[in-house]
Amino acid sequence: MSEIVRVATKAIRMMLREQDDPELVLISFPGSSGARVSIFRHSRTDSLYAVKCVKNSRVSLVEEIARKEILMPYLRDHLPEVLWCQIVDGFEVMISECKGVHTLHHLIINSDAPHSYLLVVWKDVVETLVRMWETSQHPFQETLCSRFFPARVQRIQDGLRCMTIGNIQLSECWDIPVIINGNEYPSVSESLKKVAQVGKPAMGVICHGDPQPSNIVVGKSGGWYCVDWEWAGPHQDWRMMLTHLYGWWSTRCLVLASAPVMRLSEKRIEMEYEAFIPAHLRPYQDIAMSAAFMMSDGLPNEETVSDINRFLAALYFGELRFLRLWGREEFASTMFAQAIVTANQQGHGGNTQPFQFPQRKE
Amino acid sequence: MAETLNRSNSRNERNEPMYGTFMSQENSDFVARALTYLAGEVGVRENDESFWVCYGSFVLNQQTPESDLDLLYIHNQQLPVRRFQSSFEGYPVTVYSLSRNNFVSDGEQKLFGGYFGGKVLNPYVTFLTSREDQNLVTRVGGAFIGPFAAAMAKRQGREIATQANLVADSVLARFHLCPWYRSYFLRYYIAPIFPQLWERMEEVIPLSLVEAGVVVQDNNGFHYSHFLSDEELHEETIRAVTHFWALGSCLHGSMPDFPAYYIQKAEQFIRDDNLESRCKEMLQFLRKQSIYQNGGGSYAT
Fold it and tell me: Residue A229 belongs to a domain with what CATH number?
């Protein structure tokens, strides 16, 4: 039994103060903070509990609980109750009510529920978030943003410098151009500079800091619940939040059509890849994109599109650091290529689907 | 000859926060910048005579990327005590907002068990303060801890005190109220700058106690002006402790388990870093500093 499951089990026993063993139903993949969530079912009452365990996280669970309160006026029916929070054997542990076992992510990826139903849930999630953005708009103050973008870009840059993709150490080819499927793009360093040039939105919004399907639990009796509030805050940039709604599908649902190639020649990185998002998942991404249209009262302008692309590129670059956690290392070069392409995409050029991930070649 | 309290740092001549020299210019600028943005968050009104106190890791430049910026916002509005989370340039920020009256009452009547009075017994830097406000902050810390510090001296049968005795009494009094505070004071004790910090505390804490009127100074040294009886000490202790934890739970999302969380977190810090022996050493150091030595205390382990 892993240390974290042992701690989670100890915590749930401490909270329930009963001898009967709660049944461990599921343990989540680790999040980027290293947190794991174990789901337990009470043997007599059949109630479900989510036990989140984390060590040395950037945001403590007590702060996360405080941040949940920021969302409460807007997501009252979509936030589970926190029942218990303690330190157990060096781990911070939070136990909350659990309205359902699976996340929207799990259900969609495994097609464990009809997509017609899951699309309705996802649409409601997106529309609810957009309503929250619209009703909470206020002058944007970047410095108060819980996901302060300059610091995020710096962390991404530091992470990339230590990263090896295939056999290529990125720090050694930091300043040379990248050839992707025959097209030349600027170097990693130039691309990151472009990412950092993101403009400021007119208004800031209240939002969960990482709105994506892994953080939505679908209730046993219908409904959905928003979890993982560590980055929630009152000064979010809705365009960054949109990229979590939209970019997630590209980072987690991408399918490789063939093995990607990445090689280093004397003065450039050369990459070839063919990847796509399966057709049955594209409607989810389209729903996510609709948020940009709702927020812009139509097609977003060129500047907004360019900025969303910069945020998307940051997301793709950033997620490279966590692919190993999710067992998706095979996708590293593809994700890297997509980050470079997206960082250098300016405006939509008349395309009505400006952020669309490259589709499979027919 | 008894020590004379260094008044160059006292109220009429004080132009900068007493622990301000520890804080790097970079951190000071960072906090000043943060306050201009956070003003809107906490509802600062023009000319409302509010001010800020920064405490915690930023004061001694001990912050890590995971550290919170810890702030008190003291104002003149009729608003309940609040705690809220914000962020500034990627750092989490914790702000406690409370009225001047509540702040003073926390010192004099232990309204919140020294939840705030205790914070200004740790190294802190004030921002946007008048001299009167600086004196107020100094006084609140002394008023809160004074009766308990006197009780520590009484336990030793000591009637006269050096500056070092007063600091040791105050820290031991805080351990009396909250044994887990040891873990927090230990962070100072193990810091390389502790000798300088202790020296500064020998100036600041006696000044706090004198300003609060719980200690008087004469040619022989410092004297506590009042000692609680055993029964009074018991009651005052229970009063302060219950008020402290009640407020702590309320301000942390009404978490009934907040005391357990705080205690376990404190204990964990010592366990994780194998600091048990340093903790014992710290207690020995404080006990040694609490013993009266004619000629005054000085930093010595």
Answer: 3.90.1200.10
B257: nearest CB among A86, A145, A150: A86
Same-domain check for residues A71 and A121: no
Task: Identify the domain containing residue A73 by its residue range.
Answer: 3-97
Cβ distance of A143 and B92 shorter than 8 Å: no
- What does the pLDDT read at residue B181? 96
Are A110 and A246 members of one domain?
yes
Nearest chain B residue to A145, by CA: B87
Residue A354 domain-assigned (yes or no)? no
Per DSSP, what are the bridge partners of residue B84?
B95
Tell whether A208 is covered by a domain.
yes
- Last residue of some domain: A44, A64, A97? A97
Which amino acid makes up residue B172? L
Average pLDDT of the segment spanning B197-205: 95
Q: Which of B37, B252, B261 sits opposite A141 (nearest CB)?
A: B37
Write down the pLDDT at residue A362.
Answer: 47
The answer on pLDDT for B223 being more than 80 is yes
- Nearest chain B CA: its distance from A307 CA (Å): 20
Same domain assignment for residues A312 and A171 = yes
Report d(CA A86, CA A88) in Å as an integer: 6
pTM here is: 0.85
CB contact under 8 A, A150 and B89: yes
Kindly state whether A67 is in contact with chain B, defined as any CB-CB distance less than 8 angstroms: yes
Q: Note the pLDDT tens digit of each residue in B31-42.
A: 999 999 998 888
Q: Whose CA is closest to A314, among A211, A203, A188?
A: A188
Do residue A85 and residue B257 have CB atoms under 8 angstroms apart? yes
When divided into structural domains, chain A yields a total of: 2
In angstroms, the Cα distances linking B261 to A90, B65, B84, B180, B264 are 11, 22, 18, 11, 5
A217 shares its domain with A264? yes
Cα–Cα distance list, B106 to A98, B109, B178, B267 (Å): 40, 6, 16, 26
Q: Enumerate residue ranges in chain A where pLDDT < 50.
A: 362
CB contact under 8 A, B90 and A86: no
Same domain, A209 and A277: yes
- Look over chain B and give the mean of its residue pLDDT values, rounded to a whole number: 90
Is the CB of A144 inside 8 Å of chain B's CB atoms?
yes
CB contact under 8 A, B255 and A65: yes
- Give domain status of residue A353, yes or no: no
Q: What is the ipTM of this complex?
A: 0.78
Do both A111 and A75 map to the same domain? Answer: no
Query: What CATH number has the domain bearing residue A55?
Result: 3.30.200.20
pLDDT digits 0-9 by tens, A108-149: 988 888 999 999 999 999 999 999 999 999 999 999 999 999
Burial class of residue B217 (count of CB atoms within 10 Å of its CB; 0-12, 13-18, 19+): middle
Task: Tell me phi and psi for residue A53, to 5 degrees.
Answer: -120, 135
In chain A, which residues have their Cβ closer than 8 Å to the Cβ of B268? 87, 90
**B86 vs A150: CB contact, 8 Å cut-off?**
no
User: pLDDT digits over B52-84, tens only?
Assistant: 999 999 999 999 888 899 999 999 988 899 998
**A362 within some domain:** no
Q: Which residue ranges form the domains of chain B, and what is each CATH number?
A: 7-289 (3.30.460.10)
Choose between B201 and A352: higher pLDDT: B201
CB spacing of B89 vs A151 below 8 angstroms = yes
Handedness of CA B242, B244, B250, B252 (dihedral sign): negative
For B261, nearest residue in chain A (alpha carbons): A86
Q: Do both A15 and A115 map to the same domain?
A: no
A156 and A188 inside one domain: yes
DSSP state of A88: E
Please give the Cα distance from A189 to B289 (Å, whole number): 56
